[in-house]
């Protein structure tokens, strides 16, 4: 879950670039002047709430929809007006969109057989069997796609796209339809496949943990705009706006007032030497930066009195919920840091944090 | 409470309704087994016989009552229905396909097509024959003018069937095919068409049966050679014999055979869909 | 407006190509023929021929003749009667099939049973009423056997009544289908909720069920109207030529090569039709109900 130390991403050549993409549906602005560049062999996650325009972005890149303005450049060529089937960009759908009337083998071979591959039947067969083997579906070639499980269908969808060896693959919430267990396994497989084949992946997801775990880079979208781009660590540690912090779903957020280098909120006043400009004054503390102290403890850090409600085990960490006068505050304790303390229900505690690690947004910042 | 009274009362009503619906056909079937050639098209049954069925196939000695002159008419009607079926289904699929995208004037085009099933046959028939006679100056035939009116009548039905099917069609399979580098036409042939085939079958069935039984348009627009409904209409004017009843029974049986073939084909595709749904539950 | 993108141009090109054959066919073989009828209604009729010299003679002849105007009134009267009779016969059946039958299979089977008679030729279905309604017909025989009547009823066949009976049977299914379809779409929970609130069936029917089934009634009425207004075969076969509808006039006029008069009647039929359908479409949006 925790974004690990990322290797330096080497952007050799921009495989792909979008410039000022805009798409309207009537009055609704689904994409607003989106600009982005991706290198070869890069994995970019798009994170945003539903309706943020992330699926529209993928569909415009794939050529299923035409932008009202802007350009899509792929491998040095302007493909904005090239029909989808001539772009050579792979697409994996959320619902997999397998051909229900064909077998696994025929699904995988579809693009090579009916497209312009120019391969002989024997070559197609060999390449498809290799791919089916790679995604671990050997022996299922002749099954109908209605005779395999959800995870297997997902692999067929991937294999079908990858046999064509595209340089760019778009994934539209491909893990959304799978259960949590399967999702974790597929995540690892996706990463392995990408390392083997050197494909650039653009992965749209509504899950912040998926976005942070999968991407070399994370792009956060809101209301059609790309509001932050960066490595998972950058985004995680320095969300560019209260909205980003909110989507990441990793921050306790307090409203209040930033003034003269300190922030006044429900917890009193805390020093805020560094702050980011924002139309709203917000004080954000990451769940795992919160400490729980007994009510009697003395500290010079900011504190917030809160009543303990309940805890939830999340495997590698434990999440505790506190009630601070109607405001739910979450505290994450990583089990790697030692055994969790036990708290008494309905008992009051002090929640405290290092103010230097807090992220502050305010109108006052120039 | 009310359903305890209402339901049986309505059930009885429906039974009477079905009696009303089927009564004439039952009587017609009974009378088709009237004794021949003297027995008339009314009760009482003088003696049960299959005389009139045999007469249809020319298996009876010649008598005062001439056999129905239906042979050629039947063939013409079948050919016409086949032609109509193919053309109106193709047109219906094409237009319904176009309606998957928004376009300006969609409403107007929709009503123009649906108009074909709204305008009474007498009018289309009359207008087409006026046009053929007085403006274009061609002779009317069942395979030209009548064919044109048949398609103008059955194409809206095929269109509506396909529209309903394509409304429920999942666009992403087509997009998947494009993203695999397959052009739209091949995508249509290899993905869309196989998946909408049950709908196409229904559209074909609609067009075929409507054309086979079409009467008012054909009456005006077909010229000299008669189709089957025209031949039947011809017998109205003269005296009726039970042979027309026997013929009615046989054509109904033929329809049933057709319906069964269609039913079997549909059941097969439904079973496939159900198996798919079941697998989904397991997965 | 900026120049549309090539992709959009391509799409609208495809749309146009897909629509062109159908639009062309309907324009040539549906719209043009109807315009032709309007045009020819102003032509001059000679004994066996027509010429394009414009005249109002046929129109004057139509409105000057009791036979022709009478046919218009008969058509309208019979249309209203059939509309009412198919509704009365069809609605309870639809109510049972669409709403009261709980099992989906049973309701489908019932609907299929209703449609099966359509697999017999239309003309033969019409003809089948003759041995039913005649003086020695099945109905009279059954009624006399049951001692309900002592003398056969003679007004059953070759009267307006026989046309009404025949058309009702032939067209009532077009009422049943759409109404049953709309009824089947009603959310049963609404009815249950109303029942829990203590509403009786009568109240539930008039406040919930009937209003929700109304689009079905209108669609059914459109079907029935379209077919009845253009009818001539049933009236010819079952009334012994006593009932003359506009359709019958057209057929006889064409039979005697009076194309101009046939066209006048055709125009009048078109106008009646247009008013009726436009009226119904004001109540319900056909495209939305599909």
How would you characterize this protein structure?
The complex is a heterotrimer of chains A (366), B (283) and C (290). In chain A, 23% of the residues lie in helices and 35% in strands. Chain A contains 8 helices and 21 strands. In chain A, helix 2 (104-114) crosses helix 3 (121-134) and helix 3 (121-134) crosses helix 4. The two termini of chain A are 34 Å apart. Chain B has a domain at 71-234: MetI-like (MetI-like fold, Orthogonal Bundle), CATH 1.10.3720.10. In chain B, helix 3 packs across helix 10. The two termini of chain B are 44 Å apart. In chain B, 46% of the residues are buried. The longest helix of chain C is centred in the N-terminal third of the chain and has 35 residues, at 6-40. Chain C starts with 5 loop residues before the first helix and ends with a helix. Chains in contact: A-B, A-C, B-C. Chains A and C meet through loops of A and helix 1 of C.
Quick summary of this structure?
The complex is a heterotrimer of chains A (366), B (283) and C (290). Chain A has 366 residues and is of the alpha+beta class.
Shape of chain C, please? flat
The quaternary state of the protein chains shown equals heterotrimer
Q: Compute the number of structural domains of chain C.
A: 1
Please identify the top-level CATH class of the domain at 71-234 in chain B.
Answer: Mainly Alpha
CATH A-level architecture of the domain at 71-234 in chain B: Orthogonal Bundle
State the end-to-end distance of chain B: 44 Å
- Per the CATH scheme, the topology name of the domain at 71-234 in chain B is MetI-like fold
Total count of helical runs of at least 4 residues of chain C: 14
Element order, helices and strands of chain C?
HEEHHHHHHHHHHHHH
Query: How many alpha or pi helices of chain B?
Result: 11
Strand content of chain C: under 5%
Q: State the secondary-structure class of chain B.
A: mainly alpha
Q: Unreliable stretches of chain C, pLDDT < 50, 5 or more residues?
A: none
Helix content of chain C: over 70%
